[in-house]
Design brief:
Elements: E1 10-14, H1 17-20, H2 33-38, H3 56-69, E2 74-78, H4 81-84, H5 94-109, E3 113-119, H6 125-129, H7 137-153, E4 159-164, H8 166-174, H9 186-210, E5 216-222, E6 226-228, H10 233-254, H11 261-269, H12 289-293, E7 299-303, E8 308-311, E9 321-322, H13 339-353, E10 358-362, H14 380-398, E11 403-409, E12 428-430, E13 437-439, H15 441-452
Parallel strand pairs: 1-2, 1-11, 2-3, 3-4, 4-5, 5-7, 6-8, 7-10, 10-11
Antiparallel strand pairs: 8-9, 12-13
The protein binds 5-hydroxymethyl-3,4-dihydroxypiperidine.
5-hydroxymethyl-3,4-dihydroxypiperidine is lined by residues 16, 19, 165, 222, 303, 362, 409, 416, 425.
């Protein structure tokens, strides 16, 4: 059966500011926490930072031309907060705002809808120094920043996202220290998650006030469907715990259910909250916070890469673990390729929370496949990944999920955070020395999929050369 998408299904690709822009010192940009973190010895696998990246800040016109050649209908990108407010407070920096103004206009000239994310992790360093996400004062700072951007771009932007992947900021940034700012403190991670959610909820009406009629406002979560490794009670509990920390801690309050008590109990167990803490009486949750967080949104964006197989503690190993997938179905990130997890996730979220609309705001795979002798990049494994996952999207729609669009991650190979430039997620190959761009086989396939509105067969696109 052909997998044909609804006519109004939106096809796009996504990036983020720190991962592609480069030009970190241009036009009054202030330092972000990622500039600082990347300078820390050993923090980044290849010791690099975002200073060069894809040089998109200077090459954005050419890049928009490439998007147009690929037939993208929407481009999801993020605004670098330190370009707009170099210290995270005060009036907008004209040169920084001008850049995004030009980018938005360039996109619209090519008929590409701008999908703007306000926070894809690069919070100004000065704001972090003043307390950062664990401090409640940052909530107001974010809402002020959102207002500055919405005032300037609101007349043209089709869709707004407050935060990208609050779990990553809270957990990777503050609990396990793999991301900026590199803290290892569960309590600060919990405070961060609350302040991200609260600032989202308070920013929604402010953005709406300045947005054009019909523009959407929402948030993007990285959700991971969990599966138990066996039928044992220990594995069932590992799944409950994983799902709670990763998914429900964010979805439940966003959709009016407050924080889940079982996750509060897990946090108590792990030393992140005091004994006796109650989900309905957390000291950092002020009256009105939960109502603000649950402000109705126009869509929920889901970033999906893989699933987790959850295993409970075993004798001699007190830790609950996520089982390792087999080698042959892993991407370069070590993540299992599991397309049906996306269908399951979309159906579950739809049935549990009933968001008005859903988007897959990121989905993709890291494979390092270099250019072959013929000058092309035969990324057959990425092609197969996209083929499987778009099929899963189609199946979810057939099951009644209001899935409105799909954004491939990523348009370009780019700076993969703590992995530096060692992981390549792009539809488009980037030579970081010359800044040459080469659309990969997956990009040619995706272009044809967009034109057809259908999950096309991959035959005739890939080539086994160079992709192992
Ligand atoms: O590159 C990241 C992106 O910034 C956020 N979502 C996951 C991607 C792949 O790790």
């Amino acid at each position: 059966m052909p997998k044909i998408f609804p006519k109004d299904f939106l096809w796009g690709a996504a990036t983020s500011s720190y991962q592609i822009e480069g030009s970190l010192d241009a036009d009054g940009r202030g330092p972000s926490v990622w500039d600082t973190f990347a300078a820390r010895p050993g923090a980044i696998e290849d010791g690099t930072d975002g200073r060069g990246a894809c040089d998109h800040y200077r090459r954005y016109r050419q890049d928009v031309g490439l998007m147009s050649e690929l037939g993208l209908q929407a481009y999801r990108f993020s605004i670098a907060w330190p370009r707009i407010q170099p210290t995270g407070r005060g009036p907008g920096n004209a040169a920084g705002l001008d850049f995004y103004d030009r980018l938005v206009d360039a996109l619209l000239e090519k008929g590409i809808e701008p999908y703007v994310t306000l926070n894809h992790w690069d919070i100004p360093q000065a704001l972090h120094d003043a307390g950062g996400w664990p401090a409640r004062g940052t909530v107001k700072a974010f809402v002020d920043y959102a207002e500055i951007v919405a005032r300037r771009l609101g007349d043209r932007v089709a869709s707004w996202c407050t935060h990208n992947e609050p779990w990553c900021i809270s957990h990777l940034g503050f609990v396990n220290g793999e991301h900026a700012p590199g803290d290892k403190d569960l309590h600060r991670g919990i405070l961060t998650s609350h302040h991200l959610l609260l600032s989202h909820g308070l920013a929604v009406p402010v953005i709406r006030e300045h947005a054009k009629p019909g523009a959407d406002v929402g948030i993007v979560l990285n959700l991971v469907p969990g599966f138990p490794a066996s039928n044992s009670p220990a594995d069932a509990d590992a799944l409950r715990r994983f799902d709670g920390m990763f998914n429900r801690w964010y979805c439940d309050p966003l959709f009016g259910r407050g924080y889940p008590q079982d996750v509060v109990d897990d946090h108590i167990h792990d030393g992140g909250l005091p004994e006796g803490s109650r989900a309905d009486a957390l000291p950092f949750v002020h009256p009105g916070d939960l109502e603000a967080i649950a402000t109705p949104i126009d869509y929920l964006g889901i970033n999906y890469y893989s699933r987790a197989i959850c295993r409970g503690p075993e004798e001699g190993n007190a830790e609950r673990i996520i089982a390792e997938p087999p080698e042959d179905i892993k991407t370069d990130m070590g993540w299992e390729v599991y397309p049906d997890g996306l269908r399951r996730l979309l159906v579950d979220v739809h049935q549990t929370y009933r968001p008005k609309a859903l988007y897959v705001t990121e989905n993709g795979a890291a494979y390092a496949t270099p250019p072959s002798d013929d000058g092309r990049v035969h990324d057959t494994r990425r092609l197969n990944y996209f083929h499987g996952h778009l099929g899963a999207c189609h199946d979810a729609i057939a099951e009644g999920v209001p899935l409105a669009g799909y954004f491939a991650w990523s348009l370009f190979d780019n700076y993969e955070w703590a992995f530096g430039y060692t992981k390549r997620f792009g539809l488009v190959w980037v030579d970081y020395d010359t800044q040459e761009r080469i659309p990969k086989d997956s990009a040619r396939w995706y272009r044809d999929v967009i034109a057809a509105g259908e999950v096309l067969d991959v035959d005739g696109y890939g080539d086994s050369r160079g992709d192992s």
